[in-house]
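New to this. Explain the following:
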Amino acid sequence: MPRYLKPAIFLACLAPLANLVWRSLHAQLGANPIEKITHTTGDCTLTFLLITLSITPLRRLTRQYWLIGLRRMLGLFAFFYGTLHLMTYVWLDKFFDVHEMVADIAKRRFITAGMTAFALMIPLALTSTKWSIRKLGGKRWQALHRLIYFSAAAGVIHYIWLVKADLKKPLEYAFVLGVLMLYRVVAWISVQRGAVQKVEVSEG
């Protein structure tokens, strides 16, 4: 990977936040600033989750193996924007009213799905270090990080249940997630068939 590429991508990942801050300082967030911040941070969270999931297929299909060096950073940006999304709800929308938030989670299923998506990202963020990989072992670490599939799915469901009427954008996210998951299923089947063929050849 070129030395300048990772810092450039890091700065690009901060662009949505910088845009929000700039528009906030210039009173350009529209009639409902909290809603704008909520939607923007939510979109960024889902986008970075899907980009993170796309790294493995892109790496294998293009044979650009250096892409794997970006996956951890992109996943942490998904968690970062997910945290901003949650804090917008907790701080700006509910003003830390725990009782109201608990009632919201119980009554409004899209909030339950969103909270589930965020909760599943927490262990991923906490174990994103090389030390965690060594401590857990490669196989257990990989198994744990498959939680990203469920987090992304919960995030898409959260979005679908939120909008109710105009489903175009959340269904676009659902389609991309479906393609990425289908790729993994096909790749897994291919590996299993290859393993069976090797056994048959060795036995023959």
